[in-house]
Amino acid sequence: MTEPDDLAILALTLKVALVATMAIVPFGLALAWTVAQWRGRSWVKVVIEAILAMPLVLPPTAVGIVLLMLLGKDGVAGRWFEALGIELVFTWRAAALASAVMAFPLFVRSARTAFEEIDPRLLGVARTLGDGPVGVFRRVALPLAWRGIIAGALLSFCRALGEFGATILIAGNIPGKTQTLALAIFQRAQSGRDADALRLVGLTSFLAIAAVCASELLSQRRGRPFTA
Amino acid sequence: MIHLGFRLAPNSRNDEAGSSFTLEVAMTLGARVTAILGPSGAGKTSLLEVIAGLRRNAVGRVVLDETSFLDSRERLCVPPERRGIGYVPQEPALFPHLDVGKNVGYGLRAAVGADRLIDETTALLEIRPLMRRFPRTLSGGEAQRVALARALVTKPRLLLLDEPLAALDSELKGRILPYLMRVRDEAKIPMLYVTHHAGEALALADEAVLLRAGRVEAKGPAREILTPRLLAAVHGDATLENIVDGVVLEIHPEAGTAVLSPTGATPSDSPTGELTLTVPGAPDLKVGRRATYRIASEDILLLRSKPDGISARNVLRGMVLDTDAAGHDAVVRVETSGIEWRIRVTPAAVRELEIETGRELWLAIKTHTFERLGFA
Question: What ipTM describes this predicted complex?
Fold first, then answer.
């Protein structure tokens, strides 16, 4: 098999990271909003926080092996996907899924902080003006938190770009199929092709710096007061 | 008619200063406008929030005109969006991402008649020129009027208004009272009004409630409740001022004055048969328009006989209703042709002038002690 060129690797990486980010956002928003608005017992919040932090603190390979056990041919989730006719393990979809799991906490944290910065009186007033919880979310919370949400999405995107440990376990390192930039750098370095690896390092650095800069710019402009 | 009977346990999440006690309320409010006074942290804001449905941990009953909003025994708690209650919180809490026009229209659902309603309301509250501005560019008084308009256009069954403590220091022109008087007289929506101005409460409300440490300390007709003695006991910083609202009758540019016919005055023995007051002229005063003034209670002179050759433009004959001593002050209530004045004097003055209920006295008020409120 001929090795795909750098741009093909870049394209696959972008596809994986984009799909991962798009998968994260709806679930992440729902979870971030729920946690930010949580008025029940505080230990529930702590437990959710702890579970959420797992991908941040565990070795990525540990997350990868759990995912593999869940999604493999004999795994619980693997059987559902098989029944649906979706092939997952050792495809780019698995790479996207691994990236999504690893980047999820970053997005939720960022979005949650943005939601928690909203003056609760605004949310209360919106309720008295006839909006239910969904309306308040759509018409007040989202427009006021959007900077934090986009910043969080960009951060997750960056995390997904560089995902390695979980990806290699569940998606393998198949050139042209599941080999993203991070995996390709590893393979080239292993086979002593340092110059080839460095080119990819340059590419991935450029992407990451651009995304982090955008994310920073967005968060910096968030300090605006909420009322006159 | 509002029936309230509930307990609200102190809440660790509540950041309101000093509300570490249980708010416990059992009362029925039937007036068109009820003023709620009390020291900071007495539970005034929490009371409004329970009625609005924003404090879900309240236990008890809240009933507005036969509609139960909260009935813990029936496990009923109607969410705020289905209560039809307008709420203007302390900080006006305008949506910062929307301009004034969109803020005002936020709660409007039905398109039918919406434009007319917005037109009427924004005219009433004089915020039309602000419609394209964003909340962060508004003054405190403007923001409060926008928040009031936003609540009014939803045609609420009840309006809850929470005046910030900072309004005590706010400029006269920023006061919202004159607009609330218009709302009371024209929109005719019942109001619960948290204020720190005893004078404003007297001018606006029929009924008053004094709250302290989560309990109702006194409740009744505003004139009876808002006595200096009661206020001092409950509410050290409540200010006492005279508020006069009226219609401009004449304007005398050469004299720098205008003539006001105060609302609520009865025919008097003045030459015109009406009680009128001479107030300072202002460029935007127009004959036939309403204007509201504040006269500090210490700025009125009391005289035993009709003065002769005095520079004060307002000399009124009145009768003493009562006197009330509170600390180093005595406050004399005097009625002149249906208008009630509160005049702060020293206890020594009360003795020397032999001020007592039923006595005839003369009031002298300089034109320039009339300070206009809430002009746009």
Answer: 0.83
